[in-house]
Please model this.
Amino acid sequence: MDNEVKEGTEATAEQDCNCGKPKKQSNLKTKMLWSLVFVAIAVLTVWAITSQEGFTLTSFIGFIRAQNPMWITFAIVAMLGFVVFEALALMTIIKSFGYKAPIHRGLIYSSSDIYFSAITPSATGGQPASAYFMMRDGIPGAVTTVALILNLVMYTFAILIIGIVSFIVRPGIFLGFPVVGKVLIIVGCVCLVSLAIFFIMILFKSHILLKIGNACLTLLSKLHVIRNVERKRERLACSIKSYNGYVEQIKGKQKSIVLSLLFNILQRVSVILVTVCVFMAAGGDFKMCWDIAVCQCMVILGTNVLPIPGAMGISDYMLICAFSAIGFSETVALNLNLVSRGISFYSCVIICGISLVVRLLSYKIIASRKQKKTKNTDQENQK
Model:
């Protein structure tokens, strides 16, 4: 790994050696099929919004033309901040274990997480994709697992913290949501709290992780999906032992944990600021910025755990309801939603997807050059 620095941790490194090399990650090409599902849902979502009675192409074009370029630039910067802050959070955690990744590597880790989280149900594809790139760059499997779980815990806590602040600052906005919106927000809060507890248990109660792994192996064995289950149990136990070594190191790295939490909070704030900047770009009143921010935060709380790729459709519905709750007309609410979601979500996913394609192509180019160099060396040796 370029610029990789290993600091001490000899015992942990020895555990990694004993456990062998991490398994090869699932082929990312199969996950690209989800891109087609993503596009289909995105098209249906935009069609549903533009089919509303309050939407007209003339009003939308007028809304776009009236946008202040300076505030739209701020919105784009905030969208990019969403990618950068996750990269910084992951890099902080990785660095605490003695592995330094340059910023361009960190951006690939965050881009892969964001892209595959957006196109897969319940964001299930994000972390495995991020793990693929991290392990390919030479970061041990145990470090990768702990780093991603810890970052997910910080991500969950960040949403909860911002949610609590939103309820304190503008409790009336929650009451303005329709019944469906209120239910989604309440269920979202309960799920986030449950997830935070679950992830902490996995992080610091590794025997739970071992039981879950053994249960999965037993099930797969009974279904005749895998063979040599006992050997796989031994490998799992060895991996958990290595995992425990890195978890123990976390206990003395409070500074890194706090910094990671801060970056995760800034990541969520970045999404909220996109909507605020789009509102200001349309000539909005600065006094309403808090209301706009709280609206976006409530939407995040209510849609974060939904099993829909990118929560497309539901996020738009709730954001439009939120804007209507604070007094916007249906036309303004629809236009504001289209532009803000277009920047904060769709543009972000496209940028992350392009960066991943470029990175994967670079892997092929490097491999091709190495193969060509090896071939030339063999030919020279034969001569």
Summary: The mean pLDDT is 82. The chain has one domain: 32-362.
